[in-house]
Amino acid sequence: MRIVIFQSLAATALFLGSSASYAVTLDGGAVAAPDQYSAKVAADILKRGGNAVDAAVATAFTLAVTYPEAGNIGGGGFMTLYVDGKPYFLDYREVAPKAATRNMYLDEKGELIENLSLVGARAAGVPGTVMGLWEAHQKFGKLKWSELLTPAIGYARNGFAIAEKQYQYRDDAQGLFKAGTNFNDYFGSMQVGQPFKQPELAMTLERIAEKGVSEFYQGKTAELLVKQMQADKGLITREDLTDYKAVWRDPIAINWRGNVVYTAPPPSSGGVALAQLLGIKEDRAADFKGVAHNSARYIHLLAEIEKRVFADRADYLGDPGFTKVPVAQLIAKDYLAKRAAQVNPTAISATDSIKPGLESHQTTHFSIVDRQGNAVSNTYTLNLDYGSGVVVKGAGFLLNDEMDDFSAKPGTANVFGVVGGDANAIEPGKRMLSSMSPSLVTRDGQVTLVLGTPGGSRIFTSIFQVINNLYDYDMPLEKAVAAQRVHHQLLPKDTIYFDSYAPLTGPVADELKKMGYTLEDQGWNMGDVQAIRVTGTALETASDPRGRGVGMIVK
């Protein structure tokens, strides 16, 4: 195993320390969360004197109950924080079990075995969520740990009403998980509008509330998880759980138009990608001058930029503990200028000509700001809806299928159609590459925007477009979040994706087709952005109308 620690981050990406003069008092706090239950819990915590981190911990545990398709304790994620004027980043991404091997999802002919990295116990990485929430609380929390789990325990024991949009995934999940998992034993009875109780999960949360993080990784919950692995021929062991660590990292900081954008470093690709998207677009500013929002020319220019970002993502990005990740080079001003010069503003650049440039479905997000101006941008995931479909019997929680985020066969696309290389090949103990990009924008040392979204490889392109909507087109926050989004990722060749919420049709579509693009409804909504904007001392929230999220201002 090669361990390379990169020094971050020169020129366009500077890590800024705390300001001794930092002080802000807002009109209140705010939350934008993916469902009504988690939003209410966060608001209640803020009202009771908890800070943004307390509210984030309580929100995450609540979503593990009320948003089981993505909220979790059996998955992992990233958290970008801004506390007392200083940025932080917490990596609680899952890791590959020690028994994982590079070719574990290939048959004897070297071909991928269908769904093996997506369904069942062998698809699960070692969960990081409980450790991540514990670490954040230990460092910054004010309220008691057990107090923050109380709302989630109540929803698990007493039930919550199944939402219509929640139920839409159920039929797909039931069919996919029918063979080889116990998913339907636990979630097969969900019905829209009916109360849904999870007594085993309630007991698990009660144990974690009482005993802390050690319960999940070394206590009865760990025992039940390992027992499930043994029954289903999974790979996670007691040693894997005991050895799991969350990692505090320096966030990527992008100096942009007088603002600083703080976002996710590797093992996420999201921060590097967002820095590249913003930087290349700035270098091509003349191309965008006077261009109408979501016109054919605008969408083409985005596609030209995005295809180069995805070419770099495939070759260079992975877990920095296992591979040298050239972050500083990838976001350096001269490199972005070189990539920008390759953009063709009037025609499609040939896919085969787009090379790495250096020489040599279901996730969920919430955003929280407290009255002191501290902020949490948190994205965590099981990967696809309901993860691997495996529920830990006796503990009542779903396990992730994050192993699909590795390059199971370098050069072959994963479930999101993204091709990866050797930098993201499977290795024991390695963190799989992610696109999650929980982000914060600050100006003069104070938070002005908190945002993030689920969406797999669409995450950072969605955040990029929301930022464009706000800063280039001066849209109100709600409209910026609701606006049509598109996505291009180099492969499939010359394909631009859209969603049914805001379909790409009419004259704009016709013009793009004449240019040579293939337009495709991707079949699922492009993200579920949760955003908070701070203007002076005033707050506003926006929850993506593509989802069932709720924004609340807490006075």
Task: Note down, in words, how this protein is organized.
This protein is of the alpha+beta class. Helix content is 34%, strand content 16%. It has helices at residues 36-47, 52-66, 129-140, 145-158, 164-167, 170-177, 183-187, 199-211, 213-218, 220-231, 238-243, 270-283, 285-288, 296-316, 327-330, 333-341, 459-471, 477-482, 506-515, and strands at residues 29-33, 76-83, 86-92, 160-161, 195-196, 247-249, 252-256, 259-263, 362-369, 375-383, 439-443, 446-452, 495-498, 518-521, 530-535, 538-543, 550-554. Strands 6-3-2-10-9-1-17 form a seven-stranded antiparallel sheet, with helices on one face. The chain has a six-stranded antiparallel sheet with strand order 7-8-11-12-15-16. Strand 2 and strand 3 form a beta hairpin. The longest helix is centred in the middle third of the chain and has 21 residues, at 296-316. It is globular. The N and C termini lie far apart (51 Å). 58% of the residues are buried. Residues 1-21 have low confidence and may be disordered.
Radius of gyration, taken over Cα atoms and rounded to an integer in Å? 22 Å
* Amount of helix: 25-40%
**Relative strand content:** 15-25%
Number of helices: 19
Q: What would the average pLDDT be, to the nearest integer?
A: 92
Q: Please outline the major beta sheet.
A: 7 strands, antiparallel
Poorly predicted runs: 1-21
Strand order of the largest sheet: 6-3-2-10-9-1-17
Spatial separation of the terminal alpha carbons: 51 Å
Which outline best applies? globular
- Count of DSSP E strands? 17
Structural class: alpha+beta
